[in-house]
Amino acid sequence: MKKLFCIALTGAVAASAQAAEFKLPAFETAKLANGLTVYMMERHDVPLVAVRAVVKAGAVNDGRQAGLANLTGDGVLLGSARHSKAQIDEAFDFRGAVLAAGGGVEQSTVAANFARKDTDTLLPLFAELVQQPSFEAAELDKLRARKVNGLKQAKESPRQVVGTYYRAMLFGNSAYANPATGTINSLAALKQDDVKAFHHAYFRPDNAALVVVGDFDPADMRKKVETLFGQWKAEGPAPQRADYGKVQADKARVWVVNKSDAIETTFMIGGAGIARNDPDYVPLQVLNTVLGGRFTSWLNDELRVNSGLTYGANSSFSTLSQSGTFSISSFTALPKTEAALDLALKTYDRLWSKGIDKATLDSAKAYVKGQFPPRFETSEQLASLLGDMYANDVGRAQIDNFMKDVDSVTPERAKQLVEKHFPRKNLQMVLVGKASEIGKIAAKYGEVSNLEITADGFTP
């Protein structure tokens, strides 16, 4: 057993009551003989256990079958080789437990939360779903149909799809441009064999991590994990991450996505961002809080409070394992489109024209520090964090040094970070609205491409 489950203690500092001393709670890391990475974190404050399987596979692996990873991720819950979907649903629902799964841009997850006393019943079912899902044909057909209908409905709400257009615009023909949800036509074409093949290729122990957080006895849990996951086999070499793409921003561009019945314009503006494990990830949370990361941000003040052009405006760094994007996003009444865009750009330029003074920074730093510990209070939250750390190659130092890194941001450092990470030239813009109206002003902001929201997919 010891040879198969070589444990490495990853830290022994508990979370402090004071935010300034917050540290990631102690956890163990291990790797089974089959290559499965295992994280275990004990928490005995409540008798609950959170389990999460994280697979390094997502839309970036879809190839020409857009939506395959997403359908596979959700399809894992449709039953196992030994138990039907109804049997598994009943087992979890009867005990008040939670079971969820899904596939995103770069990772697929299966997650469960249950009472400690139900571990022996539910953990084996969880293991079955991860390793031996049935993808039962009738259930898969119903799931695919729901996803197709959901995508049709999403295109009726620009705020639900503008981000997909934006990522497709920025990443061009690279894997990062693949729409995680797929397209109506690509989803309709997916078959059971496609889903089974994707699962076989990527859901394998040497491409996955198992995270267990909560109330358990470590020695007992190690035995359970070894018994339930130690026989999981992989064929051939493990899949390797390729270059998934870089943001293309050699010139200012505008995509006008026509929704002929729209009375609002939904927009995103920006460019290249950062990877999730970038050393500047934490300081940039502070600067983004000033610009558009909270209700009292510059963007929200100008576009909502002072001008009444919108009900809300924000900015964010959307991070991926290798790259990322930065965006300003909002929406406005159709006749006010140009005014809103110009004010958003003018407000954004304050990062360079005026900079961020100490008082503003201090306020943002206090806000960020106050928001940080509550994000990692529950076992479920901590399991999600450990899974993301695995999938994005993030070390625990980023969490343990969070408060120190926040405090280190000075006006001088802020200026350096703005110059380094916030895109200023060749901004990329997506406008979703009534093209006959907003098309008249689009050329003011860059080279224009026209799309129809009713068309399949998210590219011209």
TrEMBL record:
Domain Peptidase M16 N-terminal residue range list: 44-182
InterPro entries tied to this protein: Metalloenz_LuxS/M16 (IPR011249), MPP/UQCRC_Complex (IPR050361), Pept_M16_N (IPR011765), Peptidase_M16_C (IPR007863)
Signal peptide: 1-19
Keyword terms, alphabetized: Signal
Domain Peptidase M16 C-terminal: 191-366
MF GO annotations: metal ion binding
Protein name: Insulinase family protein
